[in-house]
């Protein structure tokens, strides 16, 4: 979906067109879900948080000024809701292999599947040990491939701060995953 | 540009978030510095490992039903958000509730003890008053017995209660001896 298509749908949704909002949800539901999932490592929480983000977006779409793209605005809502949740929950969520999530390729042998699961567990633990704000930049930069300027807009901080957090996060991950590098 | 400065810029270089002049400087440094190049390659590998997480996917049906569930929430009004639900059961609130219940229990027990002590006091008062009345009655009885034994005919005969009291008194005296 182009920025212009987004813009038209947002305008319609602001006027109360629910179908226009549905199209926006269909476009971004996966990205929004995955941000919440990778931050919480829990399918149920990610489901609740991503839906909460869309409900909030629907309720406050009237206040969306269009200074940034709808995508950036939606990401900011999702990240804020997730960070808020993680802060209130007290700490990072423990790592659990979720039954609702499949990580292995069905064509792999059982040994390979086990190896993949162990590697996956190590990576998740390493990411989980990061402070939530560093985790958020890793999610946005590495997994979503967003430029640092846009990450700063989403997180509401300066570009230099976002870059510094990412530098720190990568340094910590390198230490924790040194056996795989 | 020295290695220390390049190390700090590697993260931005990797994400293509450097301005053109810094980009060229880092690039030429990496071409000539093996140590920084190793560092950069390690960073690329780390990103690759992190991206493995991106392979996680929920079931196909989950996303197919996504809008229907969301529409229900939008239509019915989203009463409690997950963070609000968690807030309701936050450790602080749980501690506060526990302390409140404990304080209420202590106040209740204190009240019970106070009422009990008041009851004991009033019981003691009744006992003392009864004892005084009994003592007075017995003194009156003794006087009447003495007068009877002194054969004073004008003295009224003993009534039933007095007779019972005299019996009791004699029994008590014999027991004391």
In short:
The complex is a heterodimer of chains A (181) and B (177). Chain A has 181 residues and is an all-alpha fold. Chain A has helices spanning 3-14, 18-40, 43-59, 70-89, 110-128, 132-143, 148-155, 159-176, and one strand at residues 101-102.
Q: What is the quaternary state of this protein?
A: heterodimer
- Order of SSEs of chain A: HHHHEHHHH
Report the span from N to C terminus of chain B. 118 Å
Biggest interchain interface, per-side counts: A-B, 53 and 40 residues
**Mean pLDDT score of chain B:** 81
Shape of chain B: rod-shaped
Distance between the termini of chain A: 37 Å
Instruction: Provide the domain count of chain A.
Output: 2
The structural class of chain B is mainly alpha
Give the C-alpha Rg of chain A: 18 Å
Folded structure, characterized:
- The complex is a heterodimer of chains A (181) and B (177).
- Chain A is built from 8 helices and 1 strand.
- Chain A is mainly α.
- Chain A folds into 2 domains: 1-91, Rna Polymerase Sigma Factor, Chain: A, CATH 1.10.1740.10; 102-181, Orthogonal Bundle (Arc Repressor Mutant, subunit A).
- By secondary structure, chain B is mostly helical.
- Chain B is 81% helix and 1% strand.
- Chain B contains 8 helices and 1 strand.
- In chain B, α1 crosses α2 (20-32) and α2 packs across α3 (34-52).
- Chains A and B meet through α2, α3, α4, β1 and α5 of A and α1, α3, β1, α5 and α6 of B.
């Amino acid at each position: 979906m182009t920025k212009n298509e987004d813009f038209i749908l947002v305008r319609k949704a602001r006027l109360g067109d629910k179908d226009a909002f549905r199209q926006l949800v269909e476009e971004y539901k996966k990205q929004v879900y995955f941000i919440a999932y990778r931050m919480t490592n829990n399918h149920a929480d990610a489901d609740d948080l991503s839906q909460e983000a869309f409900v909030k977006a629907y309720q406050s779409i009237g206040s969306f000024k269009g200074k940034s793209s709808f995508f950036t605005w939606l990401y900011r809502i999702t990240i804020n809701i997730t960070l808020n949740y993680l802060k209130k929950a007290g700490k990072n969520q423990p790592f659990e292999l979720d039954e609702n999530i499949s990580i292995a390729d069905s064509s792999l042998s059982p040994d390979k599947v086990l190896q993949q699961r162990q590697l996956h567990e190590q990576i998740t633990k390493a990411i989980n040990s990061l402070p939530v704000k560093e985790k958020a930049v890793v999610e946005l930069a590495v997994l979503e491939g967003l430029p640092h300027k846009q990450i700063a807009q989403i997180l509401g901080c300066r570009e230099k701060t976002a870059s510094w957090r990412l530098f720190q996060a990568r340094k910590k991950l390198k230490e924790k995953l040194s056996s795989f590098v | 540009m020295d290695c220390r400065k390049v190390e700090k810029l590697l993260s931005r270089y990797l994400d293509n978030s450097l301005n053109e002049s810094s980009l060229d400087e880092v690039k030429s440094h990496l071409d000539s510095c093996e140590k920084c190049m190793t560092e950069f390659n390690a960073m690329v590998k780390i990103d690759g490992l992190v991206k493995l997480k991106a392979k996680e996917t929920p079931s196909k049906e989950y996303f197919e039903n996504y809008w229907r569930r969301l529409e229900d929430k939008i239509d019915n009004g989203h009463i409690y958000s997950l963070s609000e639900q968690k807030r309701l059961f936050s450790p602080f609130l749980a501690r506060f509730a526990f302390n409140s219940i404990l304080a209420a229990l202590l106040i209740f027990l204190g009240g019970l003890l106070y009422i009990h002590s008041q009851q004991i006091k009033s019981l003691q008062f009744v006992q003392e008053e009864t004892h005084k009345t009994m003592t007075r009655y017995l003194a009156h009885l003794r006087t009447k017995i003495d007068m009877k034994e002194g054969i004073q005919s004008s003295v009224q005969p003993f009534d039933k209660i007095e007779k019972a009291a005299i019996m009791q008194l004699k029994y008590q005296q014999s027991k004391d001896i």
